[in-house]
Amino acid sequence: MRTIAELIEAVRQEAIRADFPVDLPVYERAERDPATPVLFAGSLDAPVCIFGRDLGKDEVAVGEPLVGAGGRLVRAGLYEAKFGTPPNKTDKRIAEALEVALLTNTVPYKPPGNKAYSEAIKERFRPFVVELLVDHWGGHRVLSLGNEAFQWFARYADPAEVAALWERDDRYEGEITCRLEAVVRGETREKSIILGPLPHPSPLNARWYGRFPQLIAKRLAAMTS
Known about the structure:
Layout: H1 4-17, H2 24-30, E1 41-42, E2 48-52, H3 57-62, H4 69-83, E3 101-105, H5 119-136, E4 141-145, H6 147-152, H7 159-167, E5 176-184, E6 187-198, H8 206-209, H9 212-224
Parallel strand pairs: 2-3, 2-4, 4-6
Antiparallel strand pairs: 1-3, 5-6
Helix pairs in contact: 1-5, 4-9
C-alpha cells in the first residue's frame, strides 16, 4: 500500500503523461498547477464519503472539493450533523464539519466550462479514486451527488439493483451495496460500501435544490448516529 502522498503524486504523474482538458484560465487565476489534483478534503477516518462529479472554480481556488454554492450546502449539512446547529453562513469552508466526512469526486480536476468529463477521462482517473476509497478511507457509506456520481459506482453493484433504485420515486432515501475493487502494483483489494444517492446540490437544479438540505440531513442522521 502506498502512502496518500504517493497516491497524489501518482495522479499528478498520470495528468502529466498525456494531455486532457482542464480549465487552464481558472488554474492560472488561482495560481494553481493544473497537473496537481485536488483529490480530497475532510477526514480519511470519517464514516461517510460525499462523492461529487468534478471541480469548479471555487474548488480550484481553495484547493478542496465542494466549496462552491452546492458545496456550501453539503458542508452546512455536515456541520449541522456534527454540532446540531446551523453554521455561520459567512464561513465558506466550515472547516469543523470536515471531521464528519471525506469529500472527493469522479475526477480531481476542473473541466473547461461546466461540462462533465468524458467517460474516457473518468476511466483514466478511476483507479486512483478507487484506491483512495479502498486503501485510505476508513468508512463504508457513500453519498453520491447527482446522476453522474451515482453512475460512477454502477459497475460495482448488481445492475438490476442499480436500475431498480434509480427508478424508485424515493431513490434519494434508498441504498444499494457496492463492492469496490482496487488494483495497485499488481495487488487486488476489495471493499464493500453502502451507496446512497442524493440530487446534485447546484442552484441550477431547480427541482431538488430547495429540498437538498432536508435530504442530506436525513441521510447523515442515519449514517453518523
